Amino acid sequence: MKITIVCSSADHPINPWLERWIQTHGATHEITLLRSVKQLEGGDILFLISCSEIVTSAHRAKFGVTLVIHASDLPEGRGWSPYIWEIAEGRERIVVTLLEAEDKVDSGAIWAKKTVPIPKHFLAPEINQALFDCELELMDMALALHGTNPGAPQPADIAPTYYQKRTPEHSRLDVNKTIADQFDLIRVCDPVRYPAFFELHGHRYKLTLEKL
User: Fold this and answer.
1) Rounded mean pLDDT, 137-161
2) Which residue from 22, 77, 83, 85 puts its CA 20 to 30 A from 182's CA?
C-alpha cells in the first residue's frame, strides 16, 4: 500500500516512534512522512498524527481512507491535546481512538479504541512512551483492518465534549499552591516545548522535573 503520514512538527516527541514504524513497515509498504498537507499527493492511507493543519475533503479525496489517532474516549474529549487536559485533571487512564477524519473535528467513524494506564508517578517521557507505543499499535491495527470497512459511527446518545487548544500559558504554576496540588500539571508539561514555569520576585522561572 501507499501510505502517507502527516505530523506537522519536526520537534514533536512522537517523531522517533513514527520513524521506527516506517522502518518496520517500509519493506512491505511505500511510506512517506510529511510536515504539511500542501505536500500531499495521494495513496491508500493517510495518517494524521499530531497534525495541526486543517485537512479538507479535497485532501482526503486523494486517499482511500484518512485516519486520525486521538487520545480521548470519543465523542468525549474532542479538540486539542485531550490527554494533556485529562491527565492534568487527574485521570489515571487514557482511551486512544483510531477514527476516520471528517470536516467536523474528531467526529468520524471509529475503527478501534485502546486504553492506556497512566500511573500517578509517570512523568512526561513515560507518558509519551505509553501513549506513543499505543499509537503505533493502532496504526498496525489500521493496516490489518484496511479494506474490511470497520468504521462505526460515534454513539449518538453521548454528548460530545471539547477541549481548547493549549498555549504556553497553560503551563503556568501558582506559587501559592503546593507541589502536590499541581503535580499532575507539572508532569504533563513538555519540558522542551512547553515547560512548567512560575513568576516570583519580578522574574520568570522554568521548572523541570526528573525522577531520582
Assistant:
1) 93
2) 77
Distance CA 5, CA 57 (A): 17
- HEC profile of the chain: CEEEEECCCCCCCCHHHHHHHHHHHCCCCEEEEECCHHHCCCEEEEEECCCCCCCCHHHHCCEEEEEEEECCCCCCCEECCHHHHHHHCCCCEEEEEEEECCCCCCCCCEEEEEEEECCCCCCHHHHHHHHHHHHHHHHHHHHHHCCCCCCECCCCCCCCCEECCCCHHHHECCCCCCHHHHHHHHHHCCCCCCCEEEEECCEEEEECCCCC
Backbone angles phi and psi of 128, in degrees to 5: -60, -45
pLDDT in tens, 74-118: 999 999 999 999 999 999 999 999 999 999 989 999 999 999 999
What's the one-letter identity of residue 70? H
Q: Residues near 68 by Cβ (< 8 Å), separated by ≥ 6?
A: 47, 48, 51, 98, 99, 100, 101, 106, 108
Q: Which amino acid is at 22?
A: I
Find, among 33, 128, 120, 142, the residue nearest to 81 by Cα: 128
